[in-house]
Amino acid sequence: MKALSPRQILERLEQRLPLLTGGARDAPERQRTLRATIEWSHELLTDTEKLLFARLAVFRGGCTLEAAEEVVESNLDALRSLVDKSLLRFSRERFWMLETIREYAIERLEQFEDADALRRRHAEYFLRLAEEAEPHLTGRQQATWLERLEAEHDNLRLSQDSLRHAGLGAEELELVGALMRFWYVRGHLREGHSRCEEALGAHDDQSRPRLKALFGAGLLAHRLGDYRRAQELMRERLALAFHFEDAEGVASSMIGLGLNAQGLGDHERAAAAYTEGAELARAGGYIWVLAVAIANLADLAQEQGDYAQAATRLEESLGLFRELGDERKIVETLIGLGTVASREGRRDEAAALLRESLEYAEALVDKELAIWCLGELAALAVSGGEVERAARLLGAIETLREETGHAATPEERRVDEQTRSALATELGEEHFAAALLIGREMTFEQTVAFALQS
User: Fold this and answer.
1) Angle, CA of 6, 8 and 13, to the nearest 5°
2) On the CB side of 156, how many CA atoms lie within 13 Å of its CA?
3) Helices 410-427 and 367-383 meet at what angle, rounded to 10?
4) Whole-number Å distance between alpha carbons of 296 and 276
5) Rounded Cα gap, residues 88 and 205, in angstroms
6) What are the per-10-residue average pLDDT scores of the chain (454 residues)?
7) What CATH code is assigned to 116-235?
């Protein structure tokens, strides 16, 4: 700090080890530079420990014991020894390195002939993890698997980069396709969409893995509000599904096309696409796809003011999602029923459904569902005369949208504009702006706690 500005230090921290090249002249040599300090510790290791230390650098963000055993052929005693020597840390059932230490370990790894093979093994391990997780992301163990993928997010990113570098196109497309729902639910929309697009652009072969990656890219583009790009991706997916005679792929692609037609305000085309998708799914026995199509028809009916039809279809889809055990979709449907109750003036019923759903969204760290609940709770607060509360909730929603990239649907924009207009009138522009700012500065957890207050 005596010699460099904070900006200069930040620039040099991009590569940490060369930063410190001096030190007190009377200090021992091993303390005069950061590199020398690490090297001094490294030289105290046995040859076996040195090899393991270097090989562990293949992980980014740490690893579990199981991953270390399979990818770098380690054992618990060797890992514990590196922990005892302060070159490895252990917490929350994960082994990990400080990034400065890992940077040094990467340099050592590059000296081994099997470095590329080790990266390949790492990439394959995390591809298998993503594929194992995928079916659970629409089942009863969603929360557990989402947490596991979140903990391994850095390794999953590195895995995609390694697969790309190795020219393994099918495997890269499989990976991004498997991770799509994780990125969607956890609010990694921009990154997920970018990574799907990169994989599609790098590998233009007409393959089944491409089908899955196209769906991911299209759905994420839709949620980011880029309906035209999403439409292009879904059209390509529909053509590919026809090519492979994949009836489920055709049905889900039709639903994707309906979503984007609805986003663009073409309700007639959206209804036709949803209906066709539902008929194909029913004929093929694709229950999850059928339930989604029915729920989307309900959303369209609610947007058009036909609350009776919306409620009927929501109840039908709710029964199917309960049969499948898809907890997230169950909650999403309950939010829809809460929205219908709110529109029909059943405030207590709506508030109960929305608060219950918000608690689940918090447990899942699902910011999309949270945004939806918060928007409806803000509208309820306005109708109940709690204008200050409503303004703070709107401010919190603004922050969540900025963090995740979630674009408001046309219906959400309509409700938001109505709420804002009422609040500006009730509070006055200056007071409204101040309340918005308070809401914008709340964390996700603080926002949920505030919204749940009776």
Assistant:
1) 90
2) 26
3) 40
4) 12
5) 42
6) 72 57 53 73 90 96 97 94 94 93 94 93 98 92 94 98 94 97 94 97 91 96 96 97 97 97 95 98 97 98 96 98 92 96 95 95 91 95 94 97 92 90 92 96 96 87
7) 1.25.40
pTM: 0.88
DSSP 150-186: HHTHHHHHHHHHHHHHTT-HHHHHHHHHHHHHHHHHT
> Could you tell me the fold of the domain covering 6-112?
Arc Repressor Mutant, subunit A (1.10.10)
For every residue of 174-241, DSSP letters joined together read: HHHHHHHHHHHHTT-HHHHHHHHHHHHHH-----HHHHHHHHHHHHHHHHTT-HHHHHHHHHHHHHHH
**Identity of the residue numbered 359:** E
Check the CA dihedral 144-150-151-155 and report its sign. Answer: positive
CA pair distance 346, 380, nearest whole angstrom: 10
Parse the chain into domains and list their residue ranges: 6-112, 116-235, 347-454
Phi, psi of 95 (to 5 degrees): -100, 135
Q: CA angle 89-93-94, nearest 5°?
A: 45
Spatial distance between the Cα atoms of 176 and 217, rounded to a whole number of angstroms: 9
Q: Would you report the helix, strand and coil content of the chain in percent, each value rounded to 5?
A: 75, 0, 20
- CB within 8 Å of 158: residues ≥ 6 apart: 59, 60, 122, 123, 126
Q: Do the beta carbons of residue 394 and residue 415 sit within 8 Å?
A: no
3-state secondary structure of 364: helix
